């Protein structure tokens, strides 16, 4: 894997090594954060999925009851009201309002149903007969639609979460499998390059010091030779001086060859 | 993630369904007709004679063109007729919801969202 | 005396209707029907009574298709009767169809108001309310044209002319238009059966007056109850009450002033029948002493009780002779039967068996 990701194009300097190291650290922190986010979202996601499953079953039942109440209406009215209802619909009484809910930084919409009580298109439907059933049917259907709206919020949350989780997981994977290995590779590369430089430098220094030593040794030898020559010279004139040297008095012993008298405090 | 402001305007439900479903939902009060001159209804009654292209046009109109619809309800057996359009629709807004009708009880196997749910859990 | 010449012209019709009456489903049939598991079973059970009419249905038809076929049979039988009838009996039968015509015309008015293609609506019209010139109304493109066509082409012209003009059609809620027409229709029908020389003083006047009075009262009560909480004002409401019936005039006046169910209950207490209904469904406080009659303990609504009463009255009509009122009674019974079967099949189709017994069987 790491072979494929290559490394970043940087100059192998200590400065970029420092940069890379902090980048790696950042990537690791980011990775663990994103991972946690993805887990939180997935948890939420699973919960929503389960609730969708439940709600869909519930919807089946609720809609059946509602359809049945419509059957009651047609029983009581004794005819079709469909067309009339379609034509007298003007303003929506039942509306939804979208709200936001924040889950780990993702805004999930939440539909909330409300009724505009001032709007009543069907108040007179079934005036002659069946009006009470019509009213009851309206209530049943309104409740059914509330369930549907709830389900719709769940479903929207599902779609959005699905999308977000995909993105987050893609990022997690990208960090885990691309950015981190690549940064590590780069660090490794910089390190090896730096090591190489180090070794070169060391060798060079060694060479230099060798050369220096040789030079020093040569210089020493020369000095030695010079001294010997000098000594030779002095030896000849030294005998003349020896007499003089014997005249010089003995230097007193300051290094304590004599024992100190004890000092008592 | 859909643009955050887009759904503030969405406050209506729309429905594509058979006569009974539409009647019931309209009784619940979801029906809305926009102001003239281009009065548009937010519901479509489908019967045996309705062309698939009409349904699909309404579906596109409710899902893409109109921006005041929050939830689109569609009878499952009608969604079945334009299944490709429903399945390929993946936006969050408006939410498309498949509902049962009187004569066609709800079949979770066909629901495009539930199909996704199932697929995700590898069932 | 009235029976002396009745059979010369109308004996055949009466005989036929009595035959039809015998083919109505009875309690035994209903209990068989409620045992059914599928619509196909229901179809099978109905086969003796409805035979050919159900033959064309696909397997497991929808309940509305089933009801449609049953209505077809009713229509076919009624048309046969209409074709046989002469004189004032024919007019009587015509009157029966006017109620359906009102519904049909209300449908067309709705369509025209919303600029729909009214031709599509023709197939939604009730076949009993069909008359030859009905399609002509579809030519009208605006409400004024429609209004004029209605006046020229339909038997309902009188009901329109007296109380509605074309602006009303545009402005009033269609339900108010419908109920105004229906009120005029009921009054006209009532006048017809009580004043027509052929019916005056015959059993027809007796039974039809009673039935129509009940119908009028039922409408008045329903309109009152259903108008609570709507924009219908009390003056407008009062205009919708038929001006006859047991409640007219004192009860109607009280109804027109009623603000809540209590007031309605008070208004109808002039008639012991209605009072019993209200007591039975618990709309009044401190009632309940007369609850035995409606059989209300099983959750029946006021409308159910009204239907029950209508059926009982229709049943009793068959004890009378020499009157076309039996046709009216038979039609009501048949309609109730169709509603019953629709209800039962609806319960079966939707798996709501616990309420399957909620129908009205009179035989």
Descriptive report:
The complex is a heterotrimer of chains A (about 260), B (about 120) and C (about 375). Chain A is mainly alpha-helical and about 260 residues long. Chain A has 4 helices and 2 strands; from the N terminus they run H-H-H-E-E-H. Chain A has a two-stranded antiparallel sheet. In chain A, helix 2 runs antiparallel to helix 4. In chain A, about 30% of the residues are buried. Helices cover about 35% and strands about 15% of the residues of chain B. A 4-stranded parallel sheet of chain B has the order 2-1-3-4, sandwiched between helices. In chain B, strand 1, helix 1 and strand 2 form a beta-alpha-beta unit. Chain B is α/β, with parallel strands linked by helices. Chain B is built from 5 helices and 4 strands, in the order E-H-E-H-E-H-H-E-H. Chain C starts with 5 loop residues before the first helix and ends in a 14-residue tail after the last helix. The chains are: A mainly alpha (about 260), B alpha/beta (about 120), C mainly alpha (about 375). At the A-B interface, helix 2, helix 3, strand 1, strand 2 and helix 4 of A face helix 1, strand 3, strand 4 and helix 5 of B.
In N-to-C order, the SSE pattern of chain A is HHHEEH
Which outline of chain A best applies?
rod-shaped
In angstroms, what is the radius of gyration of chain A?
49 Å
Strand content of chain C: under 5%
Regarding quaternary structure, how should these chains be classified? heterotrimer
> Hey, which two chains have the biggest interface?
A-B, 58 and 51 residues
Q: Overall 3D geometry of chain C?
A: globular
Work out the number of β strands of chain A.
Answer: 2
The mean pLDDT of chain A is: 82
- Measured distance between first and last alpha carbons of chain A: 82 Å
Summarize this, please?
The complex is a heterotrimer of chains A (265), B (123) and C (363). Chain A is mainly alpha-helical.
SSE arrangement:
The complex is a heterotrimer of chains A (265), B (123) and C (363).
Chain A: H1 2-5, H2 14-77, H3 82-88, E1 94-103, E2 106-115, H4 131-247
Antiparallel strand pairs in A: 1-2
Helix pairs in contact in A: 2-4
Chain B: E1 12-17, H1 19-28, E2 43-45, H2 52-65, E3 69-75, H3 76-81, H4 83-88, E4 95-99, H5 112-120
Parallel strand pairs in B: 1-2, 1-3, 3-4
Chain C: H1 6-22, H2 27-34, H3 39-50, H4 52-55, H5 63-84, H6 87-113, H7 118-122, H8 134-137, H9 143-153, H10 157-163, H11 166-171, H12 174-195, H13 203-227, H14 234-239, H15 250-257, H16 261-268, H17 272-280, H18 302-317, H19 325-349
Helix pairs in contact in C: 1-19, 2-3, 5-19, 6-12, 9-10, 10-12, 12-13, 13-18, 15-16, 18-19
